[in-house]
Amino acid sequence: MERISTGPRHTAYKIGDITVTSLRDGYVDMPVRRLRQPGDIAFGDDLPSQVSLVDGALRLSVNAFAIDDGNDITLIDTGSSNAWHSTMGHLPEALREAKIATGRIRTVAFTHTHLDHIHGLILADGGDGFPQLSRLLVPRAELDMFREVARLERFHDRAQPFDAGQRLGANIETIAAAGHEVGHTCFRVTSASETLLIWGDTVHVPSLQFDRPEIAWEFDADREQARASRLRLLALAADNACFVAGAHLDSPGVGRVFRTETGFRFEPV
């Protein structure tokens, strides 16, 4: 993997014959109590020292990823637009900085349907984020959840379900990663013997959950299943020399995973 351009809101990489661009939608600050130890125990004064806080809160980057095969662009997740905190919703700026024309984005696929991943379909002014969109792909298990989001009503009938193990194109395959949400999905991007796992919300707090993957997140729909999926994807990445890209890894959120004596560690590209 080679980094080919970077800026405050984007970093682009060459992976084989394709380009993958990390796009920073912004960040969100969350209370430490969102982290849960086994037994559903929240952290107090026992928060490990390697976890850095900003004004007492966990700062999570919010990233989306564009996959350019030279013809069309597939966008994995879209950020939150103006549906949540004002520190988010900067995907349009990131796209402009990366010189990605929205008209070239023909496919949007979601890792899952939480609001910080789907609302970027609509701009803050109410317009369509991707005017030439021809495929809108939602995990099958979350299709009904997507169609309950009133703000995205005009996209309800355009959404198409996809299943784990399905190929979205020559370079993209889906991998089941349920737990954080019922249909949470990882996208395996492969070109010229290089592989990148775009894994959504597998890890929320990288300073802690690589070393201690048993730590869950309050908003995991099924915390035990989320732990199992995290361990499986960490092992897949470490044992097969895959690169990883995470929605909440510190921007640009791309790197490698390595095993340690007690867990895993993350090394940014």
Automatic annotation (TrEMBL):
Domain Metallo-beta-lactamase: 61-248
Domain of life of the source: Bacteria
Transmembrane segments: none
UniProt keyword annotation of Metal-binding present: yes
InterPro entries linked to this entry: MBL_superfamily_lactonases, Metallo-B-lactamas, RibonucZ/Hydroxyglut_hydro
Entry-linked CDD domains: OPHC2-like_MBL-fold
Record's keyword terms, sorted: Hydrolase, Metal-binding, Zinc
Family statement: Belongs to the metallo-beta-lactamase superfamily.
Protein's name in the database: MBL fold metallo-hydrolase
Naturally occurring in which organism (per UniProt): Mesorhizobium caraganae
Record lineage: Bacteria, Pseudomonadati, Pseudomonadota, Alphaproteobacteria, Hyphomicrobiales
